[in-house]
Design a protein that fits this description.
The complex is a heterodimer of chains A (about 400) and B (about 130).
Chain A (H helix, E strand, L loop, with lengths): L8 H36 L3 E5 L5 E4 L1 H7 L4 H4 L16 H10 L1 E10 L5 E12 L5 E10 L1 H38 L5 H31 L7 E4 H18 L3 E5 L5 E4 L1 H17 L6 E8 L7 E8 L22 H6 L5 H11 L4 E6 L3 E9 L9 E2 L1
Parallel strand pairs in A: 6-13, 7-9
Antiparallel strand pairs in A: 1-2, 1-5, 3-4, 4-5, 6-8, 9-10, 10-12, 11-12
Helix pairs in contact in A: 5-6, 6-10, 7-8, 8-10
Chain B lengths: L5 E5 L3 H11 L4 E5 L2 H8 L5 E4 L8 H10 L8 E5 L8 H8 L4 E4 L5 H9 L5
Helix pairs in contact in B: 2-3
The chains are: A alpha+beta (about 400), B alpha/beta (about 130).
EC number (chain A): 2.7.13.3
Pfam families (chain A): HATPase_c, HisKA, PAS
Membrane topology (chain A): Multi-pass membrane protein
Chain lengths: ~400, ~130
């Protein structure tokens, strides 16, 4: 700053003013540099960023968002209504908007947006509501990530697994079919040969189970909407337990069914049988000879709606604490000496969890290494106000 | 002695075709087609039942089923879909087959050949 000889009060005020102006210029310059730094990240971000009015009209956005939606410039997009026609009808934004209003922020893991040319992209979106002092929302701002490619890749992988599994079914059918013929027609087989056939049948059956598990996982991953019916729980539990009685008897393990009440569930009986059967099967596998597997049902105490609680408990090898959180994930198998003998794809519990959740239930596990494991799950009791077909 | 009922089996896998041929021949007369074209031709010979695979070369089973139901000569012959497509639950493939006019839908891998023999006998009353 130029040095000015201060001769009187006026000069003094002027020099203060000049200092202030200089400061302001400095601040403005720093702000400009700061904005330039952030603008660079804003504009070049690989994620779409937007700010909209509460009604969904875009106030500003970055280049990536324009590119994602296929617009040349902001002019094209500024009259676009993101709330109304922004998203494809199968991905309703109602819940997202609701959460935004109540919690102030929300995320959609998978949503669909319509591009300028009418085609669809799949996105992951999160946003927050910016409110004024009175709590009124002045605008929304959010980030949008294009996940179309990832989704296509996932779909391609699933298609591949599905095709492979279906292909596997053909030679499997042949295997099982001819083995059945061999078994039936050649009663004069020597013990040794019969034993070989038994082993072949067992192996073919295992193969069949693995292929079916793979196909189940793919199908369940898409959470098909299953038709809920009313069915009685007790007979389903008995049928599931009966599937394992022979094997348990051979291995001197007891299966004890302690059922009470005349519970009628609203769900899917085949799924429920598979859940209980899988859990009992695991319990049988992971319990040493002489052990006990106990299956119970009762009213669930702590749920908002009436639920039944089913438990499958064993006094077997148990699961170490460090594996508890992974137990229901795909392909997870807790390492233990019985695992190798027990076999299994590691998909069983993942499938079980899907089957429970499709019926709107919850599943959890308690276990201690060397003591045993207890699997518990809930299923909704019949809501008598709903008319559901009763399955015998 | 009443004449044996005739079954047309449309199945492209050689081994499975032989398997079902052997089991079904115990009770019925069996003719085999290995693809859609052969299937259409042999269907005009008016079998009493058609067992139809879905995953066939060039023309898939659903298209074949549609063709059968459009042909006045063939449309009244009961068709049972015998395929490895599908699951233990009523899924889209089963629904489609039934919608197109199939009497039943059996997943090969879930049934021993003997069971299949029993299941189809319902559609072949003596």
């Amino acid at each position: 700053m130029d040095k000015i000889a201060i001769k009187n009060d006026q000069d003094y005020e002027i020099s203060i003013l000049r200092e202030r102006i200089s400061e302001l210029e400095g601040l403005t310059e720093r702000l400009r540099q700061s904005e330039e730094r952030y603008r660079y990240f804003f504009e070049t971000s690989p994620v779409g960023i937007y700010r909209t009015t509460p009604e969904g009209r875009i106030l500003l956005c970055n280049q990536r968002l324009l590119d994602m939606l296929g617009y040349d410039s902001f002019e094209g997009i500024k009259d676009r209504d993101l709330e109304g026609d922004g998203s494809e009808p199968y991905y309703p934004r109602a819940r997202f908007k609701q959460l935004l209003k109540i919690k102030g922020e929300a995320e959609i893991l998978e949503a669909a947006w319509i591009k300028k040319d009418g085609s669809i992209i799949y996105v992951r979106e999160n946003a927050r509501a910016v409110k004024d002092k009175n709590g009124e929302i002045i605008y929304y701002e959010g980030r949008v990530e294009d996940i179309t490619e990832r989704k296509n890749l996932e779909q391609a992988k699933e298609d591949f697994i599905s095709t492979a599994a279906h292909e596997l079914r053909t030679p499997l059918t042949s295997l099982q079919g001819y083995l059945a013929l061999l078994d039936k027609e050649h009663h004069g087989l020597a013990d040794k040969e019969q034993a070989y056939i038994n082993k072949l049948v067992k192996a073919a059956h295992r193969l069949h189970e693995i292929v079916e598990d793979l196909l189940s996982v793919i199908r369940l991953d898409h959470r098909p909407n299953v038709d809920l019916v009313a069915f009685q729980l007790e007979p389903v539990m008995e049928e599931a337990a009966n599937e394992w009685r022979l094997k348990a008897k051979e291995e001197r393990k007891s299966i004890i069914l302690e059922t009470q009440g005349d519970y009628v569930i609203q769900g899917e009986p085949e799924y429920t049988k598979k859940i209980i059967s899988n859990l009992i099967g695991n319990a049988v596998k992971y319990t040493e000879n002489g052990g006990t597997i106990r299956i119970t049902n009762s009213r669930s105490a702590d749920d908002n709606q009436p639920m039944v609680l089913v438990t499958v408990e064993d006094n077997g090898v148990g699961i170490a604490k460090e594996h508890h959180q992974d137990i229901f994930t795909k392909f997870f198998r807790a390492p233990n000496p019985l695992s190798v003998k027990a076999g299994g794809t590691g998909l069983g519990l993942y499938i079980v969890r899907q089957l429970v959740e499709i019926q709107h239930g919850r599943i959890w596990m308690e276990s201690e290494r060397g003591v045993g494991s207890k699997f518990s799950f809930t299923l909704p009791l019949l809501d008598k106000s709903r008319q559901l077909p009763l399955i015998q | 002695m009443p004449k044996s009922k005739k079954i047309l089996l449309i199945e492209d896998d050689q081994d499975l075709a032989e398997l079902y041929d052997e089991v079904l021949s115990a009770k019925y007369e069996v003719e085999i087609a290995h693809n859609g074209k052969e299937g259409l031709e042999l269907a005009t010979k008016k079998p009493d039942l058609i067992l139809l695979d879905i995953l066939l070369p060039s023309m898939n089973g659903f298209e074949l089923l549609k063709a059968f139901k459009k042909d006045p000569q063939i449309k009244n012959i009961p068709v049972i879909v015998l395929t490895n497509l599908g699951s233990k639950h009523v899924d889209d493939d089963k629904k489609l087959a039934l919608l197109l006019g199939a009497e039943d839908y059996l997943v090969k891998t879930y049934h021993q050949p003997q069971e299949i023999l029993e299941k189809i006998s319902v559609y072949l009353p003596t």
